Amino acid sequence: MPRFQWKLILYFTSLCLLLLLLQGYLIDQLKWSLLASLLISLLIALPISFYISNIFTDPIQRMTEKARQLVSDRFLTEARVDQNDELRVLSKAMDEMDVQIRKKIEEISKERDYLQTILKGMAEGVLVVDSRSRILMTNEALRKFLSLSYDVTDRIPLEIIRNAALEEAIQKVIKNGTNISFELNIPISGGKTLECNVVSLPPSSKEVERGAIAVFHDITRLKELEKIRQDFVANVSHELRTPLTTIKGYAETLLEGALKEEVAFGFVQVIKRHTDRLTKIVEDLLILSKIESKKFLLQEEGISIPDLISDVMDYMREAAEKKKISIDRSGISPGLFLEADRNYLEQVFVNLIDNSIKYTQEGGKIAISAIEKNGKEIEFSIKDNGIGIPKEDLPRIFERFYRVDKGRSQELGGTGLGLSIVKHIVQAHCGRVWAESQLGEGSTFYFTLPRKQKIT
Ligand SMILES: Nc1ncnc2c1ncn2[C@@H]1O[C@H](COP(=O)(O)OP(=O)(O)OP(=O)(O)O)[C@@H](O)[C@H]1O
Ligand SMILES: [Mg+2]
Q: Could you read off the pLDDT of 52-74 as tens digits, one per residue?
């Protein structure tokens, strides 16, 4: 029983006792004993005081319970008060306050959940710092960018991103409130380029100074693509300029009078050779752009591998015989079939066998094989015992216009696009392509194609 109720009981009991004693006194006048009147008074006074005290304490108790529930976040019961006085008004106000607090808590929780979902789903990294430049929060994307596995709350940004420009930008934003955007290079996972926007964070009710939010957008891939595009334009221009300059030079010499001279025939031959080269570059570029275009569709059909390679050999035989190079086809499993685009697959074999012939000395050997691997794919290989490829060049040979020995390749009419075309065709078929080589000993080019269907 609460202390308040005890006090009330005591108070009412004393009051009743006083009244009853008075009555006892009057009765005493009628010759009753004082002790008897005291006992009777007590028996009457106690239940009366208990009843009266309950009337007061019951609603207070209920309100106290409700206030406790408000704090403890339990399901709330109504603080029902039966009287029609100030306590009832207070109880009503508490019920209303309870509803409002519930509503506000629900709204805040909802907003917090939205915010957390947004931050979690963002591809951009987010870093929030307070006015002392101490980290308040980081999102998942940023922790991923920076491979952070520990809690960074309350640390300074410099501890997680060692970049003075970022630190400076955060300080400036906190001080001046102006937003700052800049690019950031961080030496993580082979180097990343991030576009960083630092904006000011309005001060909270407790703080006077503002904080800052830094948003990081990973533009590494974008930068790489930009670089590839720039390199590509520079390479194409360079590749086209050489034959064009030669053609222009020889044509001008002919026009200036050499047309009538004996050398004219030779000059026209040079012009023809360089025009062929220009045509090849343009054709190769067209093939590449076609494969890379979004509309590119493979015309897949059932193909017999031994038949397809035999057809390719018809075009290549002359070049191989010229250099007395033998081509061994015994590694091709008989009866191999697969679904692929015949024209493009032929192009892959032509480019690879052409390279093997071009980069193998006279009397060399080439071996072609095709075997089924774990029932899912077919692995092809074209092996030669030619000049080989230096280790440092090997990872780059599938790049456009990349040639180990530019002079030698150009002499042989190469544009440096052949392997790039091979790579794109194989990848369009969902296959893989790679090369192994030993300088001076030879090279082996491998590619796999998935076996979609077995045609019998
Ligand atoms: N079998 C090979 N042996 C040695 N080097 C090779 C071989 N295949 C390719 N290479 C090297 O890789 C480079 C790129 O080959 P790629 O086929 O893309 O271009 P290319 O043969 O020079 O010109 P093309 O566009 O006419 O094929 C070649 O210049 C050559 O240096
Ligand atoms: Mg080639």
A: 777 777 777 777 777 777 666 55
What are the start and end residues of each CATH 1.10.287.130 domain in the chain? 224-292
End-to-end CA distance of the chain: 94
Atom of ligand 1 nearest to the CA of 386: 3
The DSSP code sequence of 396-420 is GTTSTT--SSHHHHHHTT--S-HHH
Q: What is the pLDDT of residues 232-277, one digit of tens each?
A: 888 888 889 988 999 999 999 998 887 777 788 889 999 999 999 8
Instruction: Report how far ligand 2's centroid is from the alpha carbon of 218 (Å).
Output: 36
What architecture (CATH level 2) is domain 300-450? 2-Layer Sandwich (3.30)
Do 212 and 201 touch, CB atoms closer than 8 A?
A: yes
The contacts of residue 48 (CB under 8 Å, 6+ apart) are 12, 16
364 lines ligand 1 (CB under 6 A): no
CATH 1.10.287.130 holds for 224-292: yes
Which ligand is nearest the CA of 366, by number?
1
- What's this model's pTM, rounded to 2 decimal places? 0.64
Distance from C-alpha of 167 to C-alpha of 180, rounded to nearest angstrom: 12
Q: Domain 122-218 falls in which CATH fold?
A: Beta-Lactamase (3.30.450)
Beta bridge mates, 217:
195
Instruction: Please choose, from the candidates 199, 201, 195, the residue with its C-alpha nearest in 3D space to the C-alpha of residue 178.
Output: 199
The closest residue, in CA terms, to atom 29 on ligand 1 is 403
CATH 3.30.450.20, the chain: domain bounds: 122-218
Give φ, ψ of 52 to 5 degrees: -65, -40
DSSP tag of 153: T
Q: Side-chain half-sphere of 127: how many Cα atoms within 13 Å?
A: 32
Which segments within 354-393 are labelled E, that is strand?
A: 365-373, 377-384
